[in-house]
Write a structure and sequence with these properties.
By secondary structure, this protein is α/β, with parallel strands linked by helices. It has 2 domains: about 140 residues, HUPs (Rossmann fold, 3-Layer(aba) Sandwich); about 120 residues, Rossmann fold (3-Layer(aba) Sandwich). It contains 9 helices and 10 strands. It has a 10-stranded mixed β-sheet with strand order 3-2-1-4-5-10-9-6-7-8, sandwiched between helices.
C-alpha cells in the first residue's frame, strides 16, 4: 500500500489539499497521513503587538495560546471526519518542531507529499512560489503534488517531456503511483526549439515504447517555440482541469526546460495541480 502525506497548517486549513488528497488516495488505494505542522514558535498572533499594546501580556498570551490550540485541534478533527466519511485508511501526525525540517524528514518515508502551493507556515502571505514551497522542492525526498486553492476534479493528465532524464523520471514516478488512472486522458506534450529541424519526439522510438506500456491510450503533441510560453498557453486554453507532470532540477544537473523557474511559472500562471519530481 502506498503512503501519501497531506500537509496542513492548522491555522489556515487548506480544504483543497484535503479534497485532492482524499480523491487521489482513493484512486491509488493509498494510506493517507494528515501531517499537521504545529511548529512550536508559530502562532496566529504577533508577539510584538501583544507586548506593545497590553499591560498584562502574559495573561493575553495564555488565552491566545489556548485559542490557537483549539483552532489546530479543530483542523485535525475536520481532516479526521472527512477521511472517515470517505472510508479511506488514514492516520495523523502532529509535528511540533521546525516545520520544513520535519516535513523533509517525513518525506523520506512517503511516496508522495500533497500540499497547497500557497503554504507559508507564517502569518503573512507571499507571492508564488512561497519560500517554504521553494525550499521544500529543493530538499524533498519524494514527489510533490502542489494543489491550488480551489478543488476541481482532474480531467486530464499532461506529461511534460523534453527528452531530459528529469522529465522522464517524473513521468515514471507518476506512472508508478497512479497507474490506475487509466480512465483519464493522457497527453505527452513536448516543445522544441524553433531551430530544430523536425517535430519528432526526443528519443522517439524508446519513449513511445515506454509510454505505450504505462499509458497505452496516450496522445502526443509536439510544438516549436518558447517552452514557457507554449506550455502556459496550451494549458490555459485547454478548457480542462489538467494535472501537469514535470521534472524539477537535479542537484547535479539543471534541465534547460524543467529547472525550478519552470515550476515557478506554472504556479504563478496556472490554477491546476502540479506533480513535481526530481532524482537526487
Amino acid at each position: 500500500m502506498k503512503k501519501f502525506l497531506a500537509v496542513f497548517d492548522g491555522y489556515k486549513m487548506s480544504k483543497s489539499t484535503m479534497e485532492y488528497s482524499i480523491q487521489l488516495s482513493q484512486k491509488a488505494q493509498a494510506h493517507l497521513v494528515g501531517v499537521f505542522l504545529d511548529e512550536f514558535f508559530y502562532h496566529s498572533y504577533s508577539f510584538y503587538n501583544i507586548i506593545s499594546t497590553r499591560k498584562n501580556y502574559q495573561e493575553a498570551f495564555k488565552k491566545l495560546d489556548e485559542k490557537d490550540a483549539r483552532k489546530r485541534d479543530e483542523a485535525v478533527h475536520q481532516f479526521q471526519k472527512a477521511c472517515e466519511k470517505s472510508k479511506i485508511n488514514f492516520s495523523i501526525h502532529r509535528d511540533k518542531k521546525f516545520a520544513l525540517q520535519e516535513l523533509k524528514h517525513e518525506s523520506m518515508f512517503a511516496d508522495l507529499v500533497i500540499i497547497n502551493e500557497h503554504e507559508t507556515f507564517t502569518r503573512g502571505k507571499e507571492q508564488l512560489p512561497t519560500a517554504f514551497i521553494k525550499d521544500l522542492i529543493i530538499g524533498v525526498q519524494c514527489p510533490v503534488l502542489l494543489v491550488p486553492w480551489n478543488f476541481k476534479p482532474i480531467d486530464k493528465i499532461v506529461l511534460l517531456y523534453d527528452g531530459r532524464p528529469s522529465s522522464l523520471y517524473a513521468i515514471k514516478m507518476f506512472s508508478y503511483l497512479f497507474g490506475n488512472l487509466d480512465e483519464l486522458p493522457v497527453m505527452v506534450y513536448t516543445v522544441k526549439d524553433e531551430d530544430m529541424a523536425n517535430l519528432r519526439l526526443p528519443e522517439n522510438k524508446l519513449m513511445r515504447e515506454f509510454i505505450k506500456r504505462h499509458f497505452p491510450k496516450a496522445e502526443y503533441k509536439i510544438e516549436k517555440g518558447n517552452s514557457e510560453e507554449r506550455i502556459v498557453g496550451f494549458m490555459k486554453n485547454s478548457g480542462e482541469n489538467e494535472l501537469a507532470v514535470l521534472g524539477a532540477y537535479q542537484r547535479s544537473e539543471v534541465s534547460r526546460w524543467f529547472k525550478t523557474s519552470m515550476a515557478d511559472i506554472l504556479m504563478k500562471e496556472l490554477n491546476s495541480p502540479l506533480f513535481i519530481a526530481h532524482s537526487k
